[in-house]
Design goal:
The protein has helices at 19-34, 41-51, 53-58, 113-127, 142-150; strands at 2-3, 6-13, 65-72, 75-83, 96-104, 132-135, 154-163, 166-176. By secondary structure, the chain is α+β, with helices and mostly antiparallel strands.
Length: 177
């Protein structure tokens, strides 16, 4: 399905053949966002463990996940990953879905791709029976926090992203579907 801002960009459901490109795209976006002070061993290990081709391919084995991609001419520009599980409190909903990732390569931000992926992710969650969407962006990712506020997401409190011996504050955001 083409997006309104750029009819050459289309959205589709991802498949396992996308795992290589999804992993590389995720590594790039993650590092652009979170490695603002450079690369250190703990961060490098986290990126390689979360976004290897094998780790991304394993996402297709999950019955509770939906992966959507934005592409132009066979090139992935971004993706959204939705998990259909219930969080541990903080979200006022009976069947919430989690927007686990919404990553758009930097050259393609502010072109409507993130908004289109978010709408498709919300629709996929609603079709699966979810009544709300929640996510946990990093507290220092001001652009993402502003984006989700514009989309009607409300701040529900803090959550922590933990890897190795590091704790990073995130915000829990949600909105009804």
């Amino acid at each position: 399905m083409p997006i309104a801002n750029d009819p050459e960009v289309s959205l589709r459901v991802a498949d396992v053949a996308d795992a290589l490109c999804l992993g590389v795209l995720a590594q790039q976006v993650f590092l652009d966002t979170y490695a603002t002070g450079g690369i250190r061993p703990a961060l490098a290990r986290e990126v390689l463990s979360q976004f290897s081709t094998q780790a991304m391919a394993a996402q297709f084995d999950r019955r509770d996940a939906r992966l959507l991609v934005a592409e132009r001419d066979g090139h992935l520009l971004g993706f959204a990953q939705v998990g259909l599980q219930v969080p541990q409190g903080q979200v006022p909903a009976s069947r919430p879905a989690e927007l686990e990732r919404l990553y758009v390569q930097e050259p393609f931000t502010r072109q409507g791709i993130g908004s289109a992926l978010l709408r498709q992710a919300e629709q996929a969650a609603a079709v699966a029976g979810a009544d709300a969407m929640w996510l946990t962006p990093w507290v220092h990712n001001h652009r993402a926090l502003a984006f989700y506020a514009r989309q009607g997401y409300l701040d529900r409190g803090a959550a922590w992203y933990v890897f190795e011996d590091e704790r990073h504050e995130n915000r829990v955001l949600s909105r009804p579907l």
